[in-house]
Amino acid sequence: MSEAHAEPAAPTLRDLLETAGLGVSVPEGAAQELDRPVSWVHTTEMRDPSRYLRGGELVCTVGISLHTEQDCATFVDALSRAGAAGVCFGVGDVHDTVPAALLAQCRLHGLPLLLAPPSVPFSQISRFVAEYWLGSEIAVARATNALVPELLSSLRRHDSPRQLLDSAGQLLGCYFLLEPEGGAGSDADAVTVPVPGLGTLVWVGRGDRPEPALLDLIARFVRAAQGERDIEAALARERVGQLLSLVERRMLLPDALSQLLEWPGFTAGEIACSAWPAGAGALVSMAFPDALIGDAPDLCLMLTVGAVAVTDDLALPTGHSAPVPLTDIGSAIAQARIALTLAEHRGGRVGPDQLSTLESLLEQLPLAQLAPFKQLLIDPLAELDGQRGTQHVRTLRVFLACNGSLSETAKELFLHTNTVRHRLSRIQEITGRDPLQHNDLTAYGIGLWAADRAERPAGL
Hints:
The protein is α/β, with parallel strands linked by helices. It is built from 17 helices and twelve strands. It has helices spanning 13-18, 69-82, 100-109, 122-133, 135-156, 161-172, 212-228, 231-248, 257-260, 281-287, 329-346, 358-363, 367-388, 392-401, 406-413, 417-431, 438-454, and strands spanning 40-43, 57-61, 86-90, 113-116, 175-179, 191-195, 199-204, 271-277, 292-295, 299-305, 318-320, 349-350. The protein has a five-stranded mixed sheet with strand order 9-10-8-11-12. Strands 1-2-3-4 form a four-stranded parallel sheet, with helices on one face. A three-stranded antiparallel sheet has the order 5-7-6, with helices on one face. It starts with 12 loop residues before the first helix and ends in a 6-residue tail after the last helix.
């Protein structure tokens, strides 16, 4: 079986410098101890941020509070006492060059100093460090996002398990074997996972071994592919999907379902509907053998008695309605469809409690209606952030996430409250709307949501 992966090593300052496209450098005369590990990236404009540091942080600043020799001495002394890994100084916003006093203090304390040009926002550096730490999780997520649509398409084509494994191997640049029980035991280095009823899935390839979670996902699809060979079951799911689609479009009365289909759940007081991506019928049937599963052309529908407990084991987005009487099953199907649309964009599952939100309302509006919020409120901030390395958009996101609390935002960003207030004031100067006003803050929230939606890949 695949072995546990070791805890990932922390990135070093040298890793930051040697990463193509990151854009940071070492100014002449700065300390050169570049093999220090970086535990996290901390952005601040405080002269003494030591109480917010735990050691190993790369402290990013544009030097708002660093103007005199004493300012720089206090700042570097605080970072050294706190065990910071180094300083990343952003030029172009407050200072055109690194202050000479800061360079001198860094040399005195042996504190490494990196330089970030205006084209490199601190968020880009933070993202690099975060992805370095979470490398294996991100690799699994990316591989899963690439695999699941192709594997679902394979199921819809009724491919054999061998064809499905070939598709997965082509995407991952490797090869998969499906051996009979006990057939993979001779190779001690084999990465394997059991497929109940079919044998053992074996990974063959070069490079890094796949994570166990990824192999488990492929194994579930292999079982589903084998189930799809049961033509009678596949046809039955298609018939159920056709009937449920007719009910959703009000072309068939819900009461007629109990006469046309044999499912004991129709006699229950309340039924819930779940929606899954198209082609997931065989996979969902294995996970929920007591449910009524229907394969419609554009999605998979599932009826259960009462609300269903769903885990993330299937690695599929899914939307769920509230339990309703059989007579209201058409509205439950529509509710589950909307929830699935949200789940496909954010990942995971979306239940009925998440449909009465601003996000669910915005999801149903054409992007063209939301474009002015993005163009007038977010684009000017993003453009300035890109040019000068400021963090207006990030500050706005955190301020919204903290429900408009200045103190919580300052705590989350490791800044002084006055620094947050200054940034929000600057945002008002740029856009003409005040983030401290409730209506304007809601408008900013819509603009950020529209900006995120505009960046989605086509078709999502």
